[in-house]
Design brief:
Distance between the termini of chain C: 22 Å
Largest interface: B-C, 117 and 96 residues
CATH topology of chain C: Rossmann fold
Strand order of the largest sheet of chain B: 1-10-7-4-2-3
CATH class of the largest domain in chain B: Alpha Beta
Chains: A alpha/beta, B alpha/beta, C alpha/beta
Structural class of chain C: alpha/beta
Strand content of chain B: 5-15%
Helix content of chain C: 25-40%
Shape of chain C: globular
Oligomer: heterotrimer
Distance between the termini of chain B: 62 Å
Helix content of chain B: 40-55%
CATH superfamily of chain C: NagB/RpiA/CoA transferase-like
Chain lengths: ~240, ~500, ~260
């Protein structure tokens, strides 16, 4: 099975190790992984700020990059959600591009969604002897409907003690440009989220979206809280090599 | 200190948004009260959904009924109005708020009204009816307990269902003490008992009872009012004249459909199976009836609503049944409360509805940014209004109208240019690595100039590593090839 | 069936054409549509409509829901009903020190014959009929002022001084524990509204599952909208408010104590 990595601009530049983990896990499960280099960004920063024309042009770049891929997998529910939820809308007046957008939607998956839903894998045989809490990301849950998959993967990790995050489905306050544009609102939200993370006493916060994790992790850092923040793929990979 | 009725806060919806946000965030009582109440309402809703069978099927049905009604509003509104008239009621169509106010004034004048007892009506807030009545020397008394408290405090509602969510017992006791001259202890029972007595008298003495309308039933011309307190029944039963002010979209075609929306409303709003009182009123009192109003007047208001009809994106906002479930799940609302939105309708629905009804993207349109686009509102909405999408489309409208700041427009143009071209993208990300250097401390960015300061005011930023994934791909590719040769691990 | 009203005089309509034309044009039609739109669906989802329950389950459901809302239920056999209802009314009055009550002028309530034994306990009764308050002094307006209320009908003013109201609902809905009350001459709305306590007496065979069933009966009984009773009230528990610090307060404007007697 050939799988193309959609690395997202955020992970490309700030969290390359997350995509490395994704690539290694997929390879281990028999995927032939490639990286179409022409990809940049899904266009969400512009789209969510109201700049739809600008977002559309950036989207074309992404669509082109994956035109010849069979499957596209990304470590972000938010970027995948952008493609699934808004690409058909963006190209509603351009039939040729609309068809290409639909084609991309049909083959693009978020990491946990792909593992569980397409590869049918929910137990990676990982062991992770730590206390872990999990923040579900809004867009994975609500734009993609990815709710059970990360929990399935986590619940099969051996030696891990899982503690549920209070109000876990509440947004962390990232929201892309929202974090900067409405800094005070965002601050109130991320403070509450970081507080809830600390309340669990977990050593590790795991998630499926580096946007949320950068936000919560950044707050924990500022507060000097010793919580390790990891993408689900990182946790699983680390757990596999440990075993 | 709650609300902004008596403080020097910028009242302009958009310009004052940030200062109102800070004001609300510094109010510990407000934040605790709003969080407590919305949590309670939210868990009530979840419980009510659980006991109700396939909630998704209910939502689908709710959405289908509301969409069908709005798609055929010309037919159903006509049918509704005809039936109100057949039932003996008088119907007035009001294009704008001021038309509705004038119509109401005419009715009040004809009846030489001095006292108007009001049931809860967001529409009357929307058209600022109380202020206009006050100018004419007519007393308009709010009879919903929460609204009454706010009227004494001269404030506006901060929640659709619990209007005085931001007031505590001490504040309420003081308001009652000041209003009556008696002394009140801050005890709910005592305060409620006083309100019952005091307001009962208004019900009895009022010349006119004024209510909103939760749902009009087109097939019969009936007005449906729901209330838990019973004030809606009081003002629609006791005074000789009952005036209804309703948004023109507030209809269902039939009683069968009414059953659906009543169920959705009660469960979504408070987690009740049904609101305590549901009154379905058809015409004024019938001959032979020994109580009930002698006159029924129904004022049907447009006030920006028809502008949404036919709009492929925003028409659906008219499907709203005003349950406030979106407020109760909104993390922004929980932290900043209703007054921060600066208008009658708050929370996610308010952020969408206000700019649309006021047709004001410049000030009111700024509310579209008061959301992290998390989508919790959509998930909670019993008629599946995609509020999170609408917020994005409102931002787009603002951009199209060139109402966003120049630096922002330039930034996104540059974004398009750079991220739309792989060579420029690579160049830009490389130079960003070097440009960040003056800001990096201990491997992190802990403060920065605007707009980065918006981020760093509350969190650190990781620094860009020397090698991006793109840079690492070559080595990784070889590693993966080896892995595949070894046959993987699985 | 009681409750059918005379045809009413038609009301008036102001400002319709421009308003409706604008709506039609926004919806892409030249003139407002006069044809009933097609309805592929209507009302509640099928799975909800198709549920059934036995009479006993209905009673259980109603009781569970009603008591969860702080209501009280008494279940009596048909034969014992007259004595039991009278005793229950006296008990409620005694408990709350009530000396004046009002009731619907309803044949089923009259047939129970509780007026005499209740009056014998020193309790005044205001039946909801034109002359119902002739022997009663409603006294002054509650405010003690001579306002508008002082000029209103004696019956209405008398009812306002009663602390218990007794009704015979047209239907009772088990899944929500709602009473469905259609208004008419003898079935005043005030009786279930103005008092501190409410008592509803009904037969178990008046129980339906959904509010929609009560609506169906309502529509069947009054096919022409112009004949519909001016009010259909669904009452689901006591008057309540959570407006002060989200503290649940019972009996804010309407009756705070609600009782039901179900006759088997």
């Amino acid at each position: 099975m050939k799988v193309s990595l959609f690395i997202t601009c955020l992970a490309d530049n700030l969290y390359p190790e997350v995509v490395e983990s994704v690539a290694r896990i997929l390879t281990d499960y028999g995927c032939e992984v490639d990286f179409p280099e022409a990809q940049t960004c899904c266009g969400q920063p512009a789209f969510n700020s109201g700049y739809q024309d600008e977002a559309r042009e950036v989207s074309r770049q992404l669509i082109r990059a994956f035109e010849h891929s069979d499957y596209v997998v990304s470590p972000s529910g938010s970027c995948t959600g952008m493609v699934h939820h808004f690409y058909p809308y963006l190209f509603r007046d351009e039939p040729e591009w609309a068809a290409k957008a639909e084609a991309l939607v049909g083959k693009m998956y978020e990491f946990s969604q792909f593992l569980v839903g397409v590869l049918g894998v929910s137990d990676l045989g990982a062991s992770f002897p730590h206390k872990v809490t999990y923040h579900p990301s809004c867009h994975a849950m609500r734009l993609l409907g990815v709710k059970e998959e990360p929990m399935k993967l986590l619940s099969s990790v051996a030696d891990m003690s899982y503690v549920e995050l209070p109000k876990r489905e509440d947004c962390c306050g990232f929201g892309g440009t929202f974090a900067i544009k409405m800094a005070d609102m965002s601050e109130a939200m991320v403070c509450e989220k970081a507080g809830n993370v600390c309340q669990t006493g977990a050593e590790v916060l795991v998630g499926t979206d580096m946007g949320c994790l950068m936000n919560i992790g950044g707050r924990l850092n500022k507060e000097g809280k010793p919580v390790r923040v990891m993408h689900l793929a990182q946790l699983l990979e680390e757990g596999r090599t440990k075993r | 200190m709650s609300g902004h009725g008596n403080t020097a806060v910028d009242e302009r919806i958009g310009t004052g948004l940030k200062s109102r946000t800070r004001h609300a965030l510094s109010d510990e009582f407000l934040r605790k009260a709003v969080a407590f109440t919305t949590d309670k309402l939210k868990s009530g809703r979840l419980q009510a959904m659980d006991t109700f069978g396939d909630w998704e099927a209910w939502r689908e049905r709710g959405k289908a009924i509301r969409s069908h009604t709005i798609d055929n509003l010309d037919y159903y509104l006509g049918q509704f109005a005809d039936n109100v008239v057949k039932g003996g009621g008088h119907v007035y169509f009001a294009k704008e708020g001021k038309d509705a106010v004038r119509t109401f004034m005419d009715i009040a004048e004809r009846n030489k009204a001095k006292l108007v007892a009001k049931g809860k009506s967001m529409v009357s807030e929307e058209i600022h009816l109380n202020q206009e009545l006050e100018k004419k020397g007519i007393d308009a008394i709010e009879t919903d307990l929460g609204e009454y408290i706010l009227q004494l405090a001269r404030e506006t509602p901060s929640h659709l269902i619990i209007p005085a969510i931001h007031k505590n017992k001490q504040q309420i006791a003081k308001l009652f003490t000041d209003a009556s001259g008696e002394h009140f202890e801050p005890e709910t029972k005592v305060l409620a008992e006083y309100a019952r007595k005091k307001l009962r008298n208004y019900f009895l003495e009022a010349d006119i009872g004024l209510t909103g309308c939760n749902f009009g039933v087109a097939e019969s011309g009936s007005i449906t009012l729901v209330s838990n307190e019973g004030n809606g029944r009081m003002v629609s039963t006791l005074p000789k004249v009952h005036v209804v002010v309703m948004g023109m979209e507030r209809l269902v075609p039939t009683f069968e459909d009414l059953e659906v929306v009543l169920n959705l409303l009660a469960r979504s709003a408070t987690g009740q199976k049904l609101t305590t009182y549901t009154s379905i009123l058809t015409g004024p009192k019938a001959s032979g009836d020994l109580d009930g109003p002698e006159e029924l007047h129904v004022i049907i208001l447009d006030n920006g609503r028809s502008e949404q009809l036919g709009d492929p994106i925003f028409q659906e906002v008219l499907n709203c049944i005003r349950c406030a479930a979106c407020l109760n799940v909104c993390p922004v609302y929980r932290h900043v409360g209703g007054h921060t939105y600066g208008s009658v309708y708050s929370g996610p629905i308010g952020a969408v509805l206000t700019p649309l009804l006021q047709q004001d993207m410049k000030e009111a349109g700024t509310l579209a940014y008061a959301s992290s686009l998390c989508g919790a509102c959509y998930e909670a909405c019993p008629v599946k209004i995609p509020l999170h999408d609408m917020l994005v489309h409102l931002r787009h409208r603002k951009v199209k109208m060139k109402l966003t700041a120049l630096p922002e427009r330039v930034a996104f143009k540059s974004y398009q240019t750079i991220f739309g071209n792989i060579t420029l993208y690579k160049l830009a990300t490389k130079s960003a690595y070097y440009m960040q250097k003056p800001l990096v401390r201990e491997g992190m960015i802990k403060s920065g100039p605007p707009p980065l300061s918006g981020w760093t005011q509350s969190r650190f930023m990781p620094m860009l590593p020397k090698q991006s994934f793109r840079d690492k791909w070559g080595a990784l590719q070889q590693e993966l090839a080896r892995k595949r040769k070894e046959g993987g691990k699985a | 069936m009681s409750g059918s009203s005379d045809k009413r005089a038609h009301g008036t309509m102001t400002g319709r054409d421009a308003f409706m034309n604008n709506i039609a044009s926004r919806l892409g039609r030249r003139t407002p549509s006069q044809t009933p739109p097609e309805r592929p669906f209507k009302g509640v989802p099928d799975f909800y409509r198709e549920r059934t329950m036995t009479r006993e389950e209905h009673i259980e459901q109603f009781m569970a829901n009603w008591t969860a809302l702080s209501g009280k239920v008494l279940i009596v056999e048909e034969a014992e009903a007259p004595a039991a209802v009278a005793a229950y009314i006296r008990q409620i009055c005694e408990e709350h020190g009530i000396t004046r009550i009002t009731r619907w002028e309803h044949e089923q309530l009259i047939a129970l014959g509780f007026d005499e034994p209740v009056r014998a306990a020193g309790i005044e009764i205001v039946p909801w009929r034109e002359d119902g308050a002739d022997a009663i002094d409603p006294g002054l307006s509650p405010s003690g002022e001579t306002g508008l209320w002082q000029q209103r009908e004696r019956l209405l003013r008398a009812a306002e001084t009663c602390r218990l109201g007794i009704v015979w609902p047209d239907y009772a809905v088990s899944s929500t524990s709602s009473l469905a009350l259609f208004s008419s001459g003898g079935k005043g709305r005030s009786v279930s509204l103005l008092t501190d306590a409410l008592l509803a007496v009904f037969h178990a065979d008046q129980l339906v599952m959904r509010i929609g069933e009560a609506f169906e009966h309502f529509k069947r009984q009054y096919p022409d909208a112009a004949d519909m009773p001016a009010s259909l009230n669904l009452i689901t528990g006591p008057s309540r408010s959570a407006d002060i610090e989200n503290d649940l307060t019972i009996g804010i404007h309407g009756p705070g104590k609600v009782h039901a007697v179900i006759i088997k």
